[in-house]
Amino acid sequence: MDRTLAADLARLPDLLDATRRAAAEALAALDARPVVPDAGAAAPPAPEPLPEHGTGTEAALEAFRSRWQPRFSASAGPRYLGFVTGGATPAALAGDWLTAAHDQNSNSAFDGAGQHLERETTGWLRELFGLSDAHTGTFVSGATMSNTVGLAIAREWLGERLGVSPAEDGAAALGPVRVLSGAPHSSIAKALAVLGLGRASLVRVPTLPGREAVDPAALDRALADTPGPAVVVANAGTVNTVDFDDLPALDALRRRHDFWLHTDAAFGAFAALSPRHAHLTAGLDASDSVCVDLHKWLNVPYDSAVQFTRRRDLQTRVFQNAAAYLGPLGDDPDLVHLTPENSHRLRALAAWFTLRAYGRAGHREIVERDVDCARALAGELEREPALRLLAPVRLNVVCFTLATAPTPERLAALREAAGAEVFVTPTVYGGTPALRAAFSNWRTTQADVRRAAEALRTAAKGIA
């Protein structure tokens, strides 16, 4: 064994304790650190050459803390309001550390404890989101992969309707395909490109006036004009305004039209946890496939999402993998047959930990507190003449812009000026350049709202 590696093995408990102290110090400093370092502080250091002979874990830890840690954002903290980014609850952090320590490849029944834990966890999540046991779930890396898997199953369903198998014969066997949606997330077009269906297959259907929710009557007409079976991508929480399609109305259209219903509920599914907001997810269970991103509102570390479907038989038809060292499909297929990944990190453990530690009630409190914080920030910004809300706060996102001349350049200057205290991300809503503040972190409180609002007000006045 390499001498440095052997020395680290002998000192492993001490090294893990040093790492624990470094992590605890970083988390304790979140409130005082700039949410996003300025451009100078975030600039990359001069590249170092690959070491020929390493100096061990302790020296690597110190090098990381001096060269890279100061350049990191406080994305685990309460005022990082970009990208719908959660943090990591204490239990999720513990679970993620143990995931690395146990280092399970949880894809095979030959060493099956990991995938058994994942099945228990997806069962808890299915219950959490109000899905029936007709749905089965699998962990993937994020919403983009969850949408890709769901649409891959939809692609096979189209083939089933047309008497072909795209998994065997290729996507060209389907002929022209239409995928209809009102306000699809950008990952939908990416998934269609990956799956060989093409970005051009995505048809945008008119939305309701002043909304991002699809107009069911317009979708009805578009489906009537679509020859053969189709795919409909519904939204349970859009990016800009967290708008929800009327899922029961969309499901009712299946009495007249033949289509697969995939619902992108990346963070909107968490509305189901709150009695005040659960009505927004009514009809989610009728979906043929569902995307939920867990490193958003479940507050588990990146990367983690779940993909649910009613047609696991089609899922295995797409992703089955045949090799002598892999288990057979069987009635309860190994995870290797359910996603594009053959190597499957035990992502479920962090989710299992946080659900086991805090239960439904603990995660409901996070959701409701974040929604209250979003509404409080909207109220603060409404009282600032230099800023203007662009949409009502339906759940946990505040979409706003400058009251005058909201150009991308001026909004970028506003973001940079406020960046030490609050991080928000750019968007365009209704043709207007805008900013969005997304609340999903378990640490965020009303005190953070006040700090964020003051920073945004001050920055907006400086721009105006």
UniProtKB/TrEMBL annotation:
Residues annotated as carrying N6-(pyridoxal phosphate)lysine in the record are 296
For the keyword Transferase, the answer is no
Q: Which GO terms describe its molecular function?
A: aromatic-L-amino-acid decarboxylase activity; diaminobutyrate decarboxylase activity; pyridoxal phosphate binding
- GO BP annotation list: amino acid metabolic process; carboxylic acid metabolic process
Domain of life, per the record?
Bacteria
Q: Which UniProt keywords apply?
A: Decarboxylase, Lyase, Pyridoxal phosphate
Q: Which residues form the signal peptide?
A: none
Listed EC numbers: 4.1.1.86
Q: Has UniProt tagged this entry with the keyword Transmembrane?
A: no
Name the cofactor(s) required for activity, per the record: pyridoxal 5'-phosphate
Q: Pfam families this protein is in? A: Pyridoxal_deC (PF00282)
Report the family membership. Belongs to the group II decarboxylase family.
Q: What is this protein called?
A: L-2,4-diaminobutyrate decarboxylase
Q: Which organism is it from?
A: Streptomyces lavendulae subsp. lavendulae
